[in-house]
Amino acid sequence: MLYKRKGLPEIDEIVLCKVTRIFPNSVFVDMLEYSDSGMVHISEVSPGRIRNLRDYVSVGREIVCKVLRIDRERGHIDLSLRRVNSNQKREKLDEIKQELKAESLIKNLSKKISQPADKLYRDITEKVFKEYSHLYLAFQDVVSEDLELESLGLDKKLAQELATAILEKFKPEKIAIGGEIRLKTYQSDGVEKIKEVLVKIGKVSPTIKLSYLGAGRYKIEITDIDYKPAEKTMEKVEAILEKFNDKVSTAVFERNKNE
What interhelical angle do 117-128 and 135-143 show, nearest 10? Predict the structure, then answer.
């Protein structure tokens, strides 16, 4: 992975790490997006009692961690494995997957235009990273026609070659999240109350699809190009459902089990 961020990570940041050493009470890792290492104490590997850390991690394994503490003077970074939830892990791995895909595109382009891959990567990221945190975010804007690479200061010919490669290979992959909504009310105008909340949900985003399952049950599916906007949409839906609840009305939302 060529991508590296400058400086130190922030507290609560989710980072991808590779296990380098395992001791009886701690695990040492390299943070792959930074030029720094960190430590995961045994208490932050998994809830409950741990008899052998090697049952949970192994040298060379990549793990997603959360930054707990940073001692900037001593250069010590404490991390947690157990405090990363499934959504955070999925989002981080998807982010890394997209960035590696962008790097692969540049490597292939370097062969086509006969330039060293490392040099081409530096030439491109020197411009792109002034406006974007990741290459793939810029590439997505190229696909959606929200960015012209020349506006970042790239050489005209290189910008054209890169844009062509992006449009050919870097098409956004659709992801989907969802679950089941169950609505129940004993209000006299209950049918209207349910219709109203469903209309509100439908207006949140065009990425939402609602299907009637019967007996006050509805299937919701949110399809987007990335988990982050999809999760934000889901949060808005959950906020609407929360307002539905009162003394005689209940709204229950259950996520798909595989999410």
Answer: 70
